[in-house]
Write a structure and sequence with these properties.
The chain has 210 residues and is α+β, with helices and mostly antiparallel strands. The chain has two domains: 151 residues, Glutaredoxin, CATH 3.40.30.10; 47 residues, no CATH class. Helices cover 28% and strands 28% of the residues. The strands form two sheets. The protein has a seven-stranded mixed sheet with strand order 2-1-5-4-3-8-9. A two-stranded antiparallel ribbon has the order 6-7.
């Protein structure tokens, strides 16, 4: 089920913040009423596509912050594994230099509640045991969450498909424009371009100018 238009599920779990500090009770509640959140999931630490994405988010971090948004990463690895990866230089496949929080979803509950877990728990009535079917890591899910905690965008990529980070800046710009002007943003809209009023007259006026 999509989370778009709904309150993002509550999080209270371990994380690494500021690239060096482990905390036990990280929550997105700290951003409510203050910041937008770009929450992104990735499969595993110490892999291949994942560090390129984490560094790409870091490279654009100032742009997200300029727009009043926090960036938060998440995988099913432990806090200790996150920290080890954060202490590994970029040239060695590490993510040294990443400063935004990275959630440790070791229980897989955050990924499961977000609809991005690559498998599911199945109960066997005969053996009375639980097993996991599928891939026990998160797909590349990305969520744009507004200041009230409502999900305004979600997308999920399969494991081999890296994200385009600029697209999330574009979507954040669109959300900010909608909130500020009450207009809607047409296909391929970018900041500074003409938006439209959500009426037949507004659509006609938009096409007459474009």
């Amino acid at each position: 089920m999509s989370l778009v238009g709904k309150k993002y599920p509550h999080i209270n779990t371990g994380a690494v913040i500021d690239g060096e500090e482990i905390v036990d009770n990280f929550s997105l509640d700290q951003y409510l009423g203050k910041k937008y959140v770009i929450l992104f999931f990735y499969p595993k630490d110490f892999t291949f596509v994942c560090p390129t994405e984490l560094h790409a988010f870091q490279e654009k971090l100032a742009e997200f912050e300029k727009r009043g948004a926090a960036v938060v990463g998440c995988s099913t690895d432990t806090e200790e594994t996150h920290l080890a990866w954060l202490n590994t230089p970029k040239e060695q496949g590490g993510i040294q230099g990443i400063t935004y929080p990275i959630i440790a979803d070791t229980s897989k509950i955050v990924s499961l509640n977000s609809g991005v877990l690559g498998g599911e728990y199945v109960f066997n009535n005969e053996t009375r045991t639980w097993s996991f079917v599928g891939n026990p890591v998160a797909f590349r899910g990305t969520f744009l969450i507004d200041k009230e905690g409502i999900v305004r965008h979600e997308s999920i990529n399969d494991l081999p498909l890296g994200r385009n980070i600029d697209e999330y800046l574009r979507l954040l710009d669109a959300q900010l424009h909608v909130e500020k002007y009450g207009e809607v943003c047409p296909a391929n809209w970018e900041e500074g371009e003409t938006a439209m009023v959500a009426t037949n007259a507004g659509v006609a006026n938009y096409f007459s100018q474009n």
